[in-house]
Structure formats: structure tokens, C-alpha cells
Amino acid sequence: MPPPERIEAEDTAFGRDLFRRCLESGLTDPWLTVAETATDVLGEDFDPDLIRLGVAVSRGLLIDVLATDSADAATRSMEHFVAMWSSAAETA
């Protein structure tokens, strides 16, 4: 794992351009398209807001793993998120 100073320097040098390119390329839209197809095949309701939430949580936890160099806490957090999501789906 690179030291925080290196991450900060790389962010300064590349971050703004990378962020702009990600926004222009439709960072989340491809996931929504795949999820819409999958929910259709599974006969489930498609809710783009819930899919976007799942993508955001997943990305956030991946960033956490990169920042901490440890997957343990992120894995536990994802397990909690999936359990909450599953529980909410059962009551809906």
C-alpha cells in the first residue's frame, strides 16, 4: 500500500481528470443496465435507486479496503448491508 503522501500526490496529479472521465463515461449507468436485465430475467422488480445504492456501498467499501489494506472490516460491513437489504426485500 502506498503511503498517504503518495496517494495525495497522485490524486492531485490525476484525480480531477480521472473523476471527469468517469463522469463522462457514465460510471453507474452500465451497472443499472445489467441489473435491469437481470431483474427482468429473475422476474423481480427493477428499482434503479436501490441498485445505485448497492453500487455506491460496494465502491465505498472497495475504497476502504484500498485505504486500510484490510478487507476484514469491509467484508463484515458488506455482509451487514446484504443482510439488511435481504431483510427489507422480505418485508416489502
Q: Count the DSSP helices.
A: 4
Q: How would you characterize the largest beta sheet?
A: none
Poorly predicted tracts of residues = none
Radius of gyration: 16 Å
Cα distance spanning the termini: 42 Å
Tell me roughly what share of residues is in helical segments. over 70%
Domain count: 1
Number of strands: 0
Mean pLDDT: 82
* General shape: flat
* Secondary-structure element series: HHHH
What is the structural class?
A: mainly alpha
How large is the share of residues in beta strands? under 5%
Question: In a few lines, what is going on in this structure?
Answer:
This protein has helices at 4-24, 29-42, 48-68, 72-91. It is an all-alpha fold.
Describe the 3D structure:
With 92 residues, the protein is mainly α. The chain is built from 4 helices and no strands. Helix 2 (29-42) packs across helix 3 (48-68). The longest helix is centred in the first third of the chain and has 21 residues, at 4-24.
SSE blueprint and pairings:
Layout: H1 4-24, H2 29-42, H3 48-68, H4 72-91
Helix pairs in contact: 2-3, 3-4
Key phrases:
92 residues, 4 helices, 0% strand
